[in-house]
UniProtKB/TrEMBL annotation:
All residue ranges annotated as the FAD dependent oxidoreductase domain in the record: 40-400
Species, as recorded: Pseudomonas fluvialis
Keywords: Oxidoreductase
Top-rank lineage group of the source organism: Bacteria
Keyword presence, Heme: no
Protein name: Glycine/D-amino acid oxidase-like deaminating enzyme
A GO CC term attached to the entry: cytoplasm
Listed transmembrane segments: none
GO molecular function annotation: oxidoreductase activity
């Protein structure tokens, strides 16, 4: 059993988080598993990875597939992120990716990221569900003059990797993005944009069920054992026997795991608020006139977007416990970030505030693979807060691997291979490491 490293409320699947997305998209009622069943593939986790894997296994490969979700569908990060269909999903600069891996492998990684971004729209079109897509690409906003120079360098490497992008001066970005004392220009990656993440989650779930996958909510896997070639997964009221298992829990790793996967991923808390709808006068004071997602270049990143119904969404990391009794303090910190970016905004009423977990690893890039000591167990690890474009693609890749399909150079590129290094085993050690990292990042941001 993996330890919960944050406040228990973050792992309480009985409580559905009152996010903006959940309010717009009530989750469908799915039954809990209440029987003993057998299946070709059992998937632990009903987020983007698990749902996409189930959809592709059922639709494209005709394999019997069962998804076990500990909460309701959309309970986790897939249902309550900021809805940025953007790239890349890593904590490395593009130049560092090219330095760590051969050029062909680095190119394949960025091609995979671009492919994953496009897959989100393709799945919605093919399966007939809405996405709430808006904006054109993403803006990475320089928080200092030095950061703009670094963004210009990043853009050169991204263009070498085939990612369409351009650097904008402070004046040019002010015309199409926003002005203010906290922007010194931006890098505009012109593909992708904003989506409604709950619509993507529920769309994948509906499509997977329509093509024959079995989805069970409120069915946490509590015990895992082997019986010959079969995996036996025990839930509170049922049992699944499967030939192969996909571990698709990502940041929420508080359940049973094979020894090879333990302490490989570190959850990090992300905090998001969404304001009440703003008037035209308020938007003029803020100066944000673009529906494309935006994030700044700080190590402790702030991300924000204007929503189609004229609300402002803003999120940030830094919290390392997640106690609901500290909600007011965290909201005050987010309001301070708004004031720094948009000093003329004035007080803004907040309709929604929530938090959730993203997944980071020591490898600093996403990973997928099979366990060395049991190739019938497949996994994904780490999306670094960019799961929208990465995890549906990972789910499809896992499905193709399970079905024995030849994998593309992008799917099997070296960047994705190998497990990340292990983290300290104790929860307090992991939390302390995160706290020290945030102190370091905060110092770097102040000195930039």
């Amino acid at each position: 059993m993996s330890a919960m490293i944050f406040h228990p409320s973050l792992y309480d699947r009985r409580q559905y988080h009152t996010s903006y997305w959940a309010a717009q998209n009530p989750a469908p009622h799915l039954e809990a598993l209440q029987a003993d069943i057998q299946t070709d593939v059992a998937i632990i986790g009903g987020g983007y990875t698990g749902l996409s894997c189930a959809l592709h296994l059922s639709r494209d490969h005709g394999l019997e597939t069962t998804v076990l979700e500990a909460g309701d569908i959309g309970w986790g990060a897939s249902g309550r992120n900021a809805g940025f269909n953007t790239l890349p999903a890593c904590k490395l600069a593009a130049a560092e990716v090219f330095r760590r891996w051969p050029e062909a492998e680095a190119r394949a990684f960025f091609e995979a990221q671009r492919e994953g971004q496009a897959l989100v729209y393709e799945l919605a079109q093919d399966e007939g569900f809405e996405l709430g897509a808006c904006g054109q690409g993403i803006f990475q906003v320089a928080h200092s003059r030095g950061a703009l120079a670094e963004l210009d360098e990043e853009g050169r490497w991204l263009r070498q990797a085939g990612i369409p992008c351009q650097t904008l001066s402070r004046e040019a970005f002010a015309e199409i993005g926003h002005d203010g004392p906290d922007q010194f220009g931006a890098l505009h990656m012109t593909e992708g944009g904003g989506i409604d993440p709950m619509q993507l989650t529920l769309g994948l779930a509906t499509a997977a069920r329509r093509h024959g996958a079995r989805l069970y909510a409120r069915s946490p896997m509590q015990q895992w054992r082997k019986d010959g070639a079969w995996h036996v997964l025990q839930t509170p009221q049922g049992q699944v026997r499967a030939r192969q298992v996909v571990v698709a829990t990502n940041g929420y790793r508080d359940g049973e795991e094979p020894a090879g996967l333990r302490h490989r991923a570190l959850p990090a808390i992300s905090n998001i608020l969404v304001t009440a709808p703003l008037s035209e006068a308020q938007w003029q004071a803020i100066g944000l006139n673009n529906l494309s997602p935006m994030s700044d270049t700080r190590m402790l990143v702030t991300y924000y977007r204007r929503l189609p119904d004229n609300r402002l969404l803003l999120g940030a990391r830094s919290d390392t416990w997640g106690d609901p009794q500290r909600d007011a303090r965290m909201q005050a910190a987010l309001h301070a970030l708004i004031a720094r970016k948009f000093p003329d905004a004035g007080p803004l009423a907040v309709d929604y505030f929530w938090r959730g977990l993203v997944s980071v690893t020591r490898k600093l890039v996403p990973s997928w693979g099979r366990l060395d000591d049991d190739p019938s167990v497949l996994f994904t690890l780490g999306c670094f807060g960019s799961g929208v474009n990465t995890m549906p693609w990972m789910g499809r890749t896992l499905a193709r691997a399970i079905a024995g399909q030849p994998l593309s150079a992008r799917e099997q590129c070296a960047v994705f291979r190998n497990l990340p290094g292990r983290l300290p085993s104790r929860a307090w050690q992991q939390r302390l490491g995160l706290q020290l990292a945030y102190l370091h990042y905060g110092l770097q941001d102040r000195l930039a």
